[in-house]
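Objective 1b: paired records.
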Amino acid sequence: MDEILLHHELNAEAVIKQTIFIQSKNNEEYYKQSNSLLAELRKYYPVTLPPTSFVAQPPENQLKCAVELIILNKKESAVTLERKEINNLTYSVVKYPNTREVYAGGLTKNCTSSSILECAENSFDLMEGILKSEQFSFANVVRQWNYIENILGINFKNQEMMQNYQVFNDVRSRYYSKNSFVNGYPAATGIGMNTGGVVLEFVAVNHSPGVRIVAIKNPRQMSAYTYSDEVLVGKPISQAAGKASPKFERAKYVSFENTAQVYVSGTAAIIGQNSNPEQNAREQTITTIENIQQLLSEMNLQRHHIDLKSGKIALSYLRVYVKNRKSLSQVKSVCEQYFPQVPTLYLISDICRKELLVEIEGIAEWH
């Protein structure tokens, strides 16, 4: 961490948010490791710990942990970073002359219960509390990460089959229904983890003059929130409400203060709303990358009235989730072929459909 910050001539107070990926296999290991790491981190950050998530997704090469930092790399005095606390959680506010961003992570409660319903409700309550404290709503969120223990797990309630991911989607839809998403839903990732209940992270932006936010659709894929019940597994938590589709956009364009970037949601080998169980990990990786290339293509961005005259858009960072460790070398080989210069974090994680073997997310910026 010191090396990263020194490279950018920054210190620990420039860290906006951090996500720590660990090897934990069960709740006991998860809380033991996260508490131990928290104690060490408190020594490193002299005043207030930045928003911190512990995610039970093993990094590649059997590493004990991997750390991802979002840092404030702007030297202008007009841009400030403030860490705030609510409900014993820290979140960050980055203030610009005409707008502000809110970053939050570690939105979870010690969730020893096996109920994803309870865990998800607790996490969304924490998220809503932070948003309200900044006079924001769910509609201000431009990027969200949803980490779900045993994402494909099946439980039975009153003899009805309930899938953890579908339960999570039902809860998310209930909270989102409180707001009108005039700029579209957030870009998002819904991904599995070994243990830990439900952990949420998000980035939210104030809808100020000069801020432009565009939901980007992919012509190769249906919008996830329009999926039919055919691809949604299990019963809903409310028969009256029915099964909720995943509420996220394929990507989100955000520009203000002479900067612009695209948050690319977790993307898999889905065409339309369907995935191909006959594809192996290598083939799925190629299909996934082709989906991302189509999403970020000049033609597609122009279709969304996003001007590229100021330069070219290129991916600046990737996260790659691989279902089976034995497939990692195949997936990595393909990614390095397509994106040889892009910093990439590889993680072992279950994906939101049983036939999906890889998922890729990222950030694209103008150059």
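Objective 1b, second protein:
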Amino acid sequence: MTNAQTLERTAVQGPQKLGPLTPLVGEWEGDGGVDLSYHNNDDVTGETTYFEKAVFKPIPIQENGQQVLWGLNYSMTAWRHGEEAMDPFHDEIGFLLWDKAHGQVIRNVVFGRGIAILAGSDAAVGDRTLHFNATPGDPCYGVLQNRYLLDRAEIKGFTSSFTFDDDDTFSYTSDLVLKLAAIGEEMHHTDQNTLRRVKRYHPGSEHAG
């Protein structure tokens, strides 16, 4: 194999195949989470602090006809402070995808509460902040929710961002705009946390162990 062929192969198969998702590969923990939401039992809006674990693992290449996607499967699980030995109060699983040809990042996420969101935005290799946006009814990046939530806490919009820091941490924010039947108005259900990497995977591995 010539040097030129080696470089070409490296460019296609090397770690950067994940594009701007590359920094996420690994396992993460964060203890500074803050959830702002409506508390039904107390009929108030308040903050909940939490500990969180996140895992991002590379997946094999995905092909939709001529569309080629690289990506990660991921999970994020959170426990209220003081309840780390109990069931988590938040659990989500999904995929983060990189469409290099179209310059898009995509977040395909399902929440344990009966919510599914496909969110995305423009992005480029080397971006330090990634945005994921979705709007109910949008034929591309939209939101689905179970019947109870549609009646009692209808999702009107979703925005989220991941920001990569230089000290092997990443921070995220999430904002669900909800129309709450209990209070007769809309509110912003927000979450934010900073997580530190506790285990590395090689970005080029299809199935990290």
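The first helix runs from residue 3 to 13. Residues 1-14 have pLDDT under 50 and may be disordered.
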